[in-house]
# Entry
Amino acid sequence: MTATDVLSTTYPSPATFSIASAPSVSGTTGGATATANASYDGYSSAANESLITTGTMPIGSTITITFKVKFVPNSNGSLTYNNQVTAAGTGTTGTANGATTTYLSNDGNSPCTVTASPEAGYGTTGCENAVTPLTVIGEPTIMKTVKNLTTGEASGLTADIAVPGNTLQYTLSFTNTTGGTLTGVSFKDFIPTNTTYVSSACGSLATGITACSATYTPPVVGPPAVAGYVTWTLTGTMANSATQTVTMNVTVN
# Structure
């Protein structure tokens, strides 16, 4: 018997994947036996696509196979990857002797009750054939720029030269690039060394956000010493592609 899981179909290019932990037979019941395939790599090939190399399963028995996969998604947004295992076995006794039957895995949310025998065609009927989905949420992005308010320079700089007494304004732009909506959003920024905190504020509310608050936490002398920081907390459901802009002002010591 075989249990085929072609991961190159589940995670198509430009996504990449690797086997982080080789397949192992973690449990059996009812007299079942199986040998894990140490050469399994997730690609479509006769030698490397099956999770096991040999196995026997009496009626009513089970085999549990576990393995770990590391993969890199093919987009920054939210994506769903569908995975399914194909199991095949050849009968050795009774009316199923010599007959090969193929089964497609279920998603585990709706366990199947087998009411038809393999020779009656259960391989193409019943409650099987439900893919197991994996939804990956993309990462939000945040950009930080600086402006010297004392000298009146332009906004949007990524670096600045200042002297003691100058007031700097840092602008953070938090963008929801996950591909879905976000709730419970908060982010923080530490007060730069050799500066003193002055104030912080929220800009115009992003789409879906109903409120934004800025909270300053003073530094701790220690030990251990901890720098002061500002936390911005957003209330509401942030829409995909929405951007929340906030600011923090400091003076140079």
Remarks:
- The chain has two domains: 2-136, 141-252.
- Residues 82 and 133 are 4 Å apart (CA to CA).
